[in-house]
Design a protein that fits this description.
Blueprint: E1 7-8, H1 14-22, E2 31-34, E3 51-54, E4 75-78, E5 83-84, E6 87-88, H2 90-98, E7 104-110, H3 111-114, H4 119-127, E8 131-138, E9 147-153
Parallel strand pairs: 2-3, 2-4, 4-7
Antiparallel strand pairs: 1-5, 5-6, 7-9, 8-9
Length: 168
């Protein structure tokens, strides 16, 4: 991904990142990547028993340049940019990480991002072996709209369904 891309994002409140992290079970020695680190709200609060990594485009570290073959990441956790060059980037970001050899993706996202997960896009993510396993609703007063913590994992979730047909 080119360095001159324009990202649009909100910095994650550290208290929210801490609350999210406190509700995740991490294994000892598990490799965790925060690919859109910003002010490192997640990265700085990850538990000491994990191996943590980050990328941040403002530091010249793009997530697409991370060496997933060398470092076996188990968990991706981040508040990804919701717009990239004027377009909703959420699906493309989820699709990118779902194509990697990782176990779970935990993203904080807006309702705008969540609504980009159409049934056809969910099928693509499912075809990559990733499924939505958990959704948590979050209120952040300084941000406009509703926010969600979406956990994707490689465990199929038959209670989350979608129709592939369009209806009039």
């Amino acid at each position: 991904m080119a360095k001159d891309l324009v990202y649009m994002f909100h910095q994650t409140p550290k208290e929210l990142a801490k609350e999210i992290i406190n509700n995740i079970d991490f294994e000892d020695g598990e490799a965790v990547l925060e690919p859109f680190a910003g002010e490192k709200a997640f990265y700085d609060q990850l538990p000491s028993n994990v191996n943590k990594y980050y990328t941040e485009i403002e530091e010249g570290l793009c997530y697409t340049s991370f060496n997933f073959d060398k470092i076996k990441i188990k968990t991706i956790i981040s508040n990804p940019p919701f717009r990239l060059d004027g377009k909703n980037a959420f699906f493309k970001i989820v699709e990118y990480f779902s194509s990697k050899n990782i176990d779970r993706i935990i993203f904080l996202c807006s309702s705008y991002c969540f609504c980009s997960l159409t049934s056809k896009r969910m099928k693509k993510i499912n075809d990559n072996g990733f499924y939505i396993n958990k959704i948590t609703v979050v209120d952040v007063k300084k941000w406009r709209g509703r926010y969600y913590i979406i956990t994707f994992s490689r465990t199929p979730n038959l209670s989350f369904q979608y129709f592939l047909n369009s209806f009039d």
